[in-house]
Amino acid sequence: MKGIRSAGSLTGPFRIRGALALAGIVTLSACGMLGGGGTTDKTKSLENFTAEEIYKRGEYELENSRKPEDAVRYFSEVERLYPYSEWAKRALIMEAYGYHKARKYEEARGAAQRFIDTYPGDEDAAYAKYLLALSYYDQIDEVGRDQGLTFQALQALRAVIEEYPDSEYARSSILKFDLAFDHLAAKEMEIGRYYLKRGHFTAAINRFRVVVEDYQTTTQTPEALMRLVEAYLALGLTDEAQTAGAILGHNFRSSPFYDDAYKQLTGRGLTLTPAGNSWLTNVYRQVIQGRWL
Fold it and tell me: What does this protein do (predicted)?
């Protein structure tokens, strides 16, 4: 649909196209008439304008106002006054974008989901799904927060990747998916380090194991392996410690965590070679040797 994405930039390389061109159509006198009076007067006065005029006023506000909510009001009025028009469809996706820009993520999700439900086959459905995913992703904050939003972001980003694999939104979603995935691994590491520091070695090992087995493609894996060396040595389980060191040395030799593991093991006269028969031995066979049985 032409002219929909027309109100500034989102994140990364994406721009809502054509904002200045369309907003420039709105004359200063029209802006004055559409923007005068109190809230009630504004709503009533909008009934005297066409869907296109109200929509373009919303674009103007989105481009020039410091309060994206001001633009959202115009887009929602297009929906209310002209519910079955092409402009109403355009306004709905812009309403979702406006809410997102205002950091009203729940409202952004609501508007985006309404667009998806109402216009599932529209060319802007991909953008609506991306906005939906982004509304979760942009709420992922520091590692210490509850990870429910991270899981929801991953699910929504996966939907964009799988349903619109050739779109520009899929490319951005892949990057954000990897970052969100790493975020979950970082949370496991945070908890594992907490247990390790307090001497709860078995509990720490369980957290680091999750990273190695379930998040092995993330940036957290080298440290997880080094911490496993540390925890297993503390428990006197040298076979497991050596095997963790062997995996670390094979895949992450340039990592500073390898140097730490090397010093810990060789300081006790041990080598970084697989030993014994544990879950780490299975990981070594699968990842290093390519043997799955």
Answer: Part of the outer membrane protein assembly complex, which is involved in assembly and insertion of beta-barrel proteins into the outer membrane.
Tens digit of each residue's pLDDT (9 = 90 or more) over 135-180: 999 988 754 556 788 999 999 999 999 999 999 999 999 999 999 9
Taking residues 193-218, what's their average pLDDT? Answer: 96
Domain 8-139 matching CATH 1.25.40.10: the answer reads: yes
Domain with CATH 1.25.40.10 in the chain: 8-139
In this structure, whether the domain defined by 187-287 belongs to CATH 1.25.40 is answered with: yes
